Amino acid sequence: MNSFRKLVSTKVSTNVDAAENDVESGIERLLKQLQQVNSQMQAWVTSGGSEMVSHTLTRHQEILQDLTQEFYRLRSSLRAKQEHASLLDDFREFDRSRLELEDSPGSSEQALLKEHLSVSRSTGQMDNVISQAQATLGALVFQRSTFSGINSKLSNVSSRLPSVNHILGAIKRKKSMDTIILSLVASVCTFLIFIYWLTNTLIPCRVGVAWSVCNINNVYASLGN
């Protein structure tokens, strides 16, 4: 992309050389390969890939969108420069022809000159329309890639929602089970504490009552004697 950017910034002639075609076709081929890699990663993530791969896929899609937009912008700029240089060449040629025709008078030559001027203007207008159409095409392609990235993100989220719901349900069930177990343990501990309290309270009372009964019997026995 850097080589193509430098080529666009320094391109001033209308001639299209082999190096320019090689760079442009090479970038298009690499963008298609990157698109294929993203499609394969999207299929793998949809089938249950890891979260890390999902983040990597999102980042690669953003990079592809940026590169695609930059490529179409540079190519449109290159086409506009070539068309501008071609128009300048046409006007220079027209000026030379006009000067030659002015030096050699004749009505037929003047008519040809006007016809050539009209054709040149029509060609310039057609070139402007073509450049606008190319710019519009680049914008549409970028929007398509953007919507494709949004659809892939939505598909990823929808594919992961069942697993997320399953995990949340498992967490809720575990919390309910922990609450039940904690309640049972607290009940058992309370019951054991109550039994211990009853044991420590009733046994001394029974011992005290028995001792008092023995003393009363001893008193009655002494009185009888």
Structure explained in plain terms:
It is a single-pass type IV membrane protein. The structure is a single chain. The chain contains 4 helices and no strands. It is mainly α. It has one domain. The model has no long low-confidence stretch (mean pLDDT 69).
Structure, briefly:
Helices cover 93% and strands 0% of the residues.
User: Strand-residue fraction?
Assistant: under 5%
Largest sheet: none
Number of β-strand runs: 0
Uncertain residue segments:
none
Rough outline = rod-shaped
Mean pLDDT across all residues, rounded? 69
Number of domains: 1
How large is the radius of gyration?
A: 46 Å
Specify the structural class.
mainly alpha
Compute the separation of the termini in Å.
Answer: 129 Å
- The level of helicity is over 70%
Count of alpha and pi helical runs: 4
SSE run: HHHH
Features:
0% strand, mainly alpha, 225 residues
Layout: helices, strands, pairs:
Layout: H1 2-10, H2 18-46, H3 51-103, H4 107-224
